[in-house]
Amino acid sequence: MTDSHDPSHTLSLTADWESPAETAADGTWLECVACGETFAPFETIRYTCDACDGLLEVRSDDLPTFDDFSGTGVWRYAESLPLDSGVTIQEGNTPLYRVPRLEADVGVETLRIKHEGMNPTGSFKDRGMTVGVAVARELGVDRLACASTGNTSAALAAYGSRGGMETLVLLPAGKVAAGKVAQASLHGARILEVDGNFDRCLDIVQELASRGETYLLNSLNPFRLEGQKTIGLEILEGFQADYGTWPDRIVLPVGNAGNTAALYKVFRELVQTGELAVEDVPKLTGVQAEGAAPMVEAIENDADAVRRWDEVETRATAIRIGNPVNAPKALPGIRETGGTAVAVSDEAITAAQRDLAEEGIGVEPASAASVAGLRKLRAQGVVAADERVACLTTGHLLKDPDAAAAAGRDPEPVPADTAGVLEVLES
Ligand code: F0G
């Protein structure tokens, strides 16, 4: 702990980062987004600021431009990441689907679906984990842990075991979709089911990590968010390739607001290198379920901080979160980019899940929140008809088979002969 910067503009789109001579290793350092304290990145394990407990961000004074990227997947963007290589299962390079019918129905000029469910374990968490688990290896830790609504636990279990490390996951009992528990289980994580919600699980795992029992790989870990920046880089490159322009808006589901923070971070980096003009930065637009919408409440009330909701409920269990820990990074991201946040009902989420399914895109409920939110904002006139929009769908349909079956058509029993089947078909 040495150099301290003036933090007043640290989370603005136009701040230039100054490398702190004493704490930067190879031009990379950790900086507190609240007080500006800086730390060497790989010497001591820390997740938050020693001085004020604020959130940390990984910073570099050698930021890349688009020309520096080559190859495919998350590690195409190695120049933008704190390590040159990771523990990889070929994550990233997910499809940016065209959805002409949905685009016309929602009523925007362009709608593309960035389907993060097409990652190795079926969610965007893989992008963060390939980096986070590599950092864990660099730090020499051998037991990794997370609290999870499911997807983080699946990714941690897969990447941890690929990296040869022990994994521990704390899940809210009875509130995690079946596919996710199955993944954590088969990849060999020790699964602890907590009699409490996700936020309680995170409190406990943070406590375990601070006692040195485990290495924490929730999105509080700033290295994980570095990997998740690559979603933004892929969307920007995709729009540039197909339209020669940037998207006006990125709409995404919000739980802990890690993705929102990661996208905002990469936009700030691109503004610093001159790759993206401030006025071209896509408007970050967060969507929560009505029963778990503390970020929306903070945006609507123009509040400086988010109020923790102790009671949360939604069918979209992945985002059943009442205390979005990355809010101090994400609130400025939504505001500075001219975005907004909106809450949607569980019914609207299921309807959007069906809309996407009609286009052949299978997503879990939380993912469909982005499309439900876009529809609502378009209907309200907050999103204009001439906008080019990317919606993020964060997890695959098979993550939550029960929700998919409930939203879809029911199987029909038929006799075991052709005549009987024809009779049912004609009925
Ligand atoms: N969508 C899905 C499918 C998720 O699993 C999550 C978070 C989010 C959206 C929200 O992302 O936290 O970056 O705002 N899932 C975490 C987990 C909490 O444990 O799997 P965020």
TrEMBL record:
Pfam families: PALP. CDD domains: Thr-synth_1. SUPFAM superfamilies: Tryptophan synthase beta subunit-like PLP-dependent enzymes. PROSITE patterns: DEHYDRATASE_SER_THR. Pathway: Amino-acid biosynthesis; L-threonine biosynthesis; L-threonine from L-aspartate: step 5/5. GO terms for molecular function: L-serine ammonia-lyase activity; pyridoxal phosphate binding; threonine deaminase activity; threonine synthase activity. Residues 88-395 form the Tryptophan synthase beta chain-like PALP domain. GO terms for biological process: isoleucine biosynthetic process; L-serine catabolic process; L-threonine catabolic process; threonine biosynthetic process. Its EC number is 4.2.3.1. Its cofactor is pyridoxal 5'-phosphate. Gene3D superfamilies: 3.40.50.1100. Keywords: Amino-acid biosynthesis, Lyase, Pyridoxal phosphate, Threonine biosynthesis. The modification N6-(pyridoxal phosphate)lysine is found at K125. InterPro entries: Ser/Thr_Dehydratase, Ser/Thr_deHydtase_PyrdxlP-BS, Thr_synthase-like, TrpB-like_PALP, TrpB-like_PALP_sf. It is an enzyme of class 4 (lyase). Belongs to the threonine synthase family. This is Threonine synthase. It comes from Natronosalvus rutilus. The lineage of its organism: Archaea, Methanobacteriati, Methanobacteriota, Stenosarchaea group, Halobacteria. The gene is thrC.
